[in-house]
Amino acid sequence: MSSLQYPDDLRYTSDHEWIRDVGDGVVRVGITAYAQDALGDVVYVSLPSVGDQVAAGDSCGEVESTKSVSDIYAPLAGEVTSVNELLDATPELVNTDSYGDGWMYELTLADASVLDNLMDSAAYEAQLD
Amino acid sequence: MSGSATKTSPLHDKHVGLGAKLADFSGWSMPIEYPGGGVVAEHTAVRERVGLFDVSHLGNALVSGPGAKDFLNRCLTNDLERIEPGKAQYTLCCDQDGGVVDDMIAYLRSDDEVFLIPNAANTARVVELLQASDHRPEGVRVENQHHDYAILALQGPLVDQVMEELDLPTGHDYMSFVPAQWQGAEVTVCRTGYTGERGYELVCASDAAPALWDALMTAMGAHEGLACGLGARDTLRTEMGYALHGNELSDEITPVMARTGWAVGWGKEEFWGKEALTAQKEAKESRLAGGLVVTGRGIPRAGCRVVDGAGQEVGVVTSGTFSPTRKQGIALALLDRGTDQGSELTVEVRGREIPVQVSKPPFVEGGAAG
């Protein structure tokens, strides 16, 4: 359990998603090590479509393991500008590389300043206990 | 994850030591999966090599005394006259309406002694019904021995090699059992399982279980065997189309509907639910169990509606999962009569429509009886 990592350069939500600022008001979204570990083997990921407008907290996809299914939420408001098509054929990337090739989608934020309102890694880790 | 499970297996410390993810199964805290494995790896180990499950949450009940077999034969659906002592039989305990109180394995030891392995959640109810039955001769006792035994299931094509390393019996017929000794402990070795693969279920006293678990784990090591949780047990049984009580069988889903009529002794003079089940069988109206294979993407889950091209409901999913062997979604479902094999249907999964094809289980070929 202690092997689960929460990189310092990411932001987090209580829905166990991570958010990476990739610049120009664009963020990349994925699920945390905690979330993938709790789900177990991920076998199917349903992502939003490029062009979708989402509000913070909207359910915009699903991640399924052999055991259960969880919603993917939009952490912030914006427009979906890219999705990780690798997950179609290799959903297990969510388990094996949750902060890298296991990313889910990119969002162009309606208001980039709200990014700072999300938890940092210390705050996220603290609320896991 | 759940704090409500109050009962633990005699092997609980082993699971904790291995770092297993534990979950509540009918009040029992049992492993779902182990680190270094996971459902898919554990599933694959059983299909290709060998895996070891702790299924001690399953119940144990002893029916003994003069006429024990004849008594049970008037209650449970299957016909114990079909088997000899030393054989086990899949059977059902129904209510008067034909609903299924539980399904179980009955080990016929003699005319006067039958050992039952019902499901965790239903053992107490089955024991109560048998104890309260008017049919029960005075000398026949029905004892709930749920906490006295551990049950280990060793499953997979390499299973005999592992058993032989412990000098445990192998090679007896499918659904037969052999009493054995292992390091001074009595172990009943039955050619049964719930995975579709060749395998044995080992029943021993609770205090003998930890050493037996360790010895089997060590012997499996040479064959890249894995400790397997109940997550893999569920994907394995779903691939085989095996019924799970609470999903494919229930107080509303009868053996006629579940197509487990082969486990009913229709010619017997009596068994619980005979009248209702015979009427339902002859009426040919109820939905029937079938299988669905996802042709698009997604995973059907229990309770999802199955609809035809016109949007008309033609069934409901009873179990659904991702098949690690076929790498696609599969489901067991209750379908309207007349739904043809190969029909293209749709399953409604949380607002999405997933295309499926009707396909008779098993979804993979197992070697259980081979």
- CATH homologous superfamily designation of the largest domain in chain B: Probable tRNA modification gtpase trme, domain 1
The largest pleated sheet of chain B is described as: 6 strands, mixed
Oligomer: heterodimer
- Spatial sequence of strands, sheet with the most strands of chain A: 1-2-3-9-8-5
Low-pLDDT sequence parts of chain B: none
Number of strands of chain A: 9
How widely separated are the two ends of chain B? 39 Å
Radius of gyration of chain B: 21 Å
Q: Kindly estimate the percentage of residues of chain B that lie in beta strands according to DSSP.
A: 25-35%
- Which secondary-structure class do the elements of chain A indicate? alpha+beta
Global shape of chain A: globular
Highest CATH level, the class of the largest domain in chain B:
Alpha Beta
Shape of chain B: globular
Number of helices of chain B: 8
Helix content of chain B: 10-25%
Strand order of the largest sheet of chain B: 11-12-13-10-4-14
Kindly report how far apart the N and C termini of chain A lie.
12 Å
Note the beta-strand portion of chain A: 25-35%
Topology:
The complex is a heterodimer of chains A (129) and B (370).
Chain A: E1 11-12, E2 17-23, E3 26-31, H1 33-39, E4 42-46, E5 53-54, E6 59-65, E7 69-73, E8 78-83, H2 86-89, H3 93-96, E9 105-109, H4 121-128
Chain B: E1 7-8, H1 12-18, E2 21-25, E3 28-33, H2 39-48, E4 51-54, E5 61-64, H3 68-73, E6 87-94, E7 100-110, E8 113-117, H4 123-132, E9 141-144, E10 149-155, H5 159-165, E11 177-182, E12 185-190, E13 199-205, H6 209-221, E14 226-228, H7 230-240, H8 274-283, E15 288-294, E16 305-307, E17 313-323, E18 328-335, E19 344-349, E20 352-358
Parallel strand pairs in B: 1-3, 4-14
Antiparallel strand pairs in B: 2-3, 4-10, 5-8, 5-9, 6-7, 7-8, 10-13, 11-12, 12-13, 15-18, 15-20, 16-17, 16-19, 17-18, 19-20
Question: Could you characterize what this model shows?
Answer:
The complex is a heterodimer of chains A (129) and B (370). With 129 residues, chain A is an alpha+beta fold. Chain A is built from 4 helices and 9 strands; from the N terminus they run E-E-E-H-E-E-E-E-E-H-H-E-H. Chain A has helices at residues 33-39, 86-89, 93-96, 121-128, and strands at 11-12, 17-23, 26-31, 42-46, 53-54, 59-65, 69-73, 78-83, 105-109. In chain A, a hairpin with a 2-residue loop joins strand 2 (17-23) and strand 3 (26-31). The longest helix of chain A is centred in the last third of the chain and has 8 residues, at 121-128. Chain B has helices spanning 12-18, 39-48, 68-73, 123-132, 159-165, 209-221, 230-240, 274-283; strands at residues 7-8, 21-25, 28-33, 51-54, 61-64, 87-94, 100-110, 113-117, 141-144, 149-155, 177-182, 185-190, 199-205, 226-228, 288-294, 305-307, 313-323, 328-335, 344-349, 352-358. In chain B, the strands form 4 sheets. In chain B, strands 11-12-13-10-4-14 form a 6-stranded mixed beta sheet, with helices on both faces. Chain B has a 6-stranded antiparallel β-barrel with strand order 15-18-17-16-19-20. In chain B, strand 19 (344-349) and strand 20 (352-358) form a beta hairpin. The longest helix of chain B has 13 residues, at 209-221. Classes of the chains: A alpha+beta (129), B alpha+beta (370). The A-B interface holds A 1, 40-41, 43-44, 46, 62, 64-67, 69, 88, 95 and B 19, 21, 32-33, 38-41, 43, 231, 235, 297-299, 301, 321-322, 324, 329, 350, 352.
